[in-house]
User: Fold this.
Amino acid sequence: MVMRMLLIYIILQSKRLLSLLPRLLIGTVAVVIAGALAAGLVSGVRAGDESRVKTRIGVVYDEGDSYARAGVGALRHFDSSRNEAEFIAMDEAQAKAGLIDGSLTAYLYIPGDFFTTMYSDDINPMRFVTLSGSAGLDTRLLTEMAESIVRLMAETQAAEYGAVEYARENFPDSNPYEGYDDLIDRYFAAVLDRDKLYSVEIIGYNGNLSFAGHFFAGITFMLSAFWGIGLSPFFSRRSRELGNMLSVRALPAPLQVAGEATVIFAAHFINAVLVLALGKALLDLAGVTIPDKLNNFAAVAALTALCLSSTEMLIFELVPLPPASLMAHFINTAAQCFTAGCVYPRSFFPEPLRTIGALMPFGAAIDCYGGGSALAVTIWAILLLCLTGGIRLARQRGGVS
Amino acid sequence: MTAEIKGIEKSYGKKSVLRGVSFSAERGDAVAIIGGNGRGKSTLLKCLAGILRPDAGSFMWEGAELLRSRELKSLVSYVPQGTPLIEELSARDNLRLWYSRGEMELSLEKGLLRDLGIGEFLKTRASRLSIGMRKRLTIACAIARDPQIILLDEPTASLDIAARERLWQFFDAHCARGGVMILVTHELRDIERSSKTLILRNGLAEEYNFSGDYTALAEAMEWS
Assistant:
C-alpha cells in the first residue's frame, strides 16, 4: 500500500514538473548558447591548454648551413617550445605570404652569415618578424620568445664549438669533425629532448583537471545550480495540507520528501546532461577539447543532480514561499559556487576558505568533475534529505507552521 | 458510546491549547464544534486525525483505542481547512492518489464520487475549479476508503447555498449509513443541521444547545 502510494505520488509529482520542465530546458539551451557566444565575443574563444592549436612560426634560413640546420633542429627538439610552437622551414616570400594570410603567427629570419659573424663585432642579427604592431600581450610574448630562440640557438652553437675544442685538446690525433653529427644527435637526445628524462605532471585546479577543464566544470555546475531557481514554482505550489493528509493515510513525511527528491533529481539530471553536452558541443566547435574524465556525462550529471536536488529540498523546506525562498536559493548558490571554486579555483583562496569550500556540498560535487570520490556527495545528499524529512515530520507532528 | 474522546491535551511550547477535551458520539451523529478563533478547534481535529500528537488523552472507537493504532488510518478521514490538491493536475489525477483505477470507476458510477458529483469536472485542472468543486474534490480524496469517522475543518466556509446543500446531502447520507461526522464550523446552518453542538473554550469542550438566540451564542463563544 505504502509503495503503491509512493509510486503514484512520484508519477503525479513528475506530471507537475513536466508542466514546468520544457520551458526551463529551453531556457537552459538559450543561456548556454548565449553564454558561449558572449564568451566567444569577449575572449575570441581561446583554446584550452589540452588542445591549443600550435603557434606556427616560419623559419627562413640557409639549409646548406650546418650550424643553422643544427640550431633549427634544436628549436624543434626543445620541449617547451615544441608543445607550443611549430617551426616550419620556408623561404622569406612564403613566410611573408603566410603572415598576410594568417597561417603564420611570425617568422624567424636567420641570415646566411649569422653563425660566422656571431662572435665578431659585426654580428648580423636574426630577425623575428610579426604582423602585429600592437603593444598587446601577444606581441610581448612573441618578443620574449624571439629573444629566447636567439639565446637558445647561440648557446647550442657555443656548445658545439666547445665540444669540438674539447676534442681537439684532448684527442689531438683524432679528427674532431669525425663524430660531429653523432655529437649533435646525442646533444639533442640527451640535453634538449628533456621530456625523456622527466614526465610532466599538472597539479590541477580541481582534482587533476586542467585550467580549461576546471572552468568547464565550474561554469556548467554553476549553470545547473542557478537553473534550480526556476524550479521554485514546483516547491511553492506544494500543498501542506496534502502532506498532512498523506501522512495520515499512508505516506509519512520522510517518504513524501523521498518522492519529491526523486522527481527533482530527475529534472536536475536531465538539465545537467543537457548543459554538459551542449557545452561540449560548443567547445568542440571552438576547437577546444575537454578532458576525458569529463566526458562521462552520466556520472558527472548524476552527482551534480544528487547534490543540487538534496540542497534545494532543504532550502525550499526551510523557506517554502517566494520571494524569500528565491533569495535564499540565490544566496546559497552564489556563496557555495564561489567557495567551491566555480568562479576562481579554490587554490587561489586562503587556506581556511579552501578547506571550507572543499567540505561544503557544492565543493564535494565539483571535486567529482576532476575524478574525486562520490562518497562525500552521497553522504551530504543523505544528510540533507534526512534533515528535510525531519523538518517536515516535526512541522506535521508539532503543528509548527 | 461508539466514539469516545477523553481528556485530549495539547500544548504549543508553554501555551496550553487543549486542557482535557472530552465528548462522545453515536453512530449517525454529526457533531459540530464551535468556538472563537484560536481556541484550538483545528488542533483538536488534527489530534484526532493523528496529524498532531496529543500530550495526553484517548480516542476510542467501539472500545478500541485509535490514537496509536493502525486502525486510525482506515477508520478516520480528515478533510483539512485548506486545499490538499495538486493544483496543476486534473481532478482525475488528484483522485488517483487515493483511489485505484477500478475503485474510482466504480465509485463514479454508483458510489461516493457519484454522490459528490465529481464526474462533472473530472478532466478539469484543480486550479480552475470553483470553491465548491474544490471542496467536493477534497472530500472525495479524504473519504476514499469509506471511513467510519469523517473529521472536517470548516467544510462549508465560503460556499454558496447550492454547494452547501449538496455537501450536506452527502453528510446526511454518510450519517444515515451509520458513520460519524465531527466538523469544526462557524456557520449557523451547519450548527442547525448537526445532531450535537460542542463549544470549545478555555481548552475544554462543553455541549451547547443552540436555541436560535444569536446574542447568547456570541456571548457563549466569547465574541462579545
Observations:
- The longest strand of chain A covers residues 55-60.
- Residues 137-170 of chain A form the longest helix (34 residues).
